[in-house]
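Entry:
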Amino acid sequence: MTATVLLPLRVLEDESVAAGLFEFLSPTHVLVLGYYEVPDQTPPEAARDQFDDRAQSKLDDVRAAFEAAGATADTRMVYTGEAEQTIGRIAAEEAVDAVVHPGAAMDVDRLLVPLVGQADVDRVAAFVAELVGGRDIDVTVFGLDESLTPDEIESALADAGLSPPQLTTETGPSGSPVDAIAEAAVDFDAVVMGEPKPTLSEWVFGELEARVATEALGPVFVVRAVTEETDEGADTDDGE
């Protein structure tokens, strides 16, 4: 089954997608989520009436570029006062496999996979294996979760189809996982990690994004954990 990646994009603020990401995501299905954070006291419907034609035109261009690279793609546009909550809710609604902070991806030859915060190793391994496919991309796994041994990590990745010499397994440095990921990311073209605790949105849009986006140019993928819980308190009035 083809993995689905959610790509949030501030299309009305001219946030773009680097050329390398189109090729890198070619084995996947991409849901391009355009979003606009409406000012306080502004109804989402008013923003939709004002901006929707321009936003959809830009989303159509992005979708066409993904399809030209070999991916399948859909688009969705939302107008919301709570972007993080809305993105998290849509990720759950659409049952996407991963959410990506796009970065400035060029050619992706080296992929960092840090495992931290009780991430679902099997889901991460399956996503990485599909993303890499038969391409010449080196994968380095940092074991930052003390509950996982390097052998367990390597076994899960091997079951998903990744093995040496394409795969390298290392024990990550001690200390803050965010520091370790941010420091290591500068030597890699992209990062794939499992959804840790706290929530997905806090890691994609909070401390991790701020550090990694500052210190590394490549995209950061967060593979969603599968739970039976629904997002509580998510913004439901997003003007869709």
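The helical segments are 19-24, 44-69, 83-93, 121-132, 150-160, 177-185, 200-205, 207-215.
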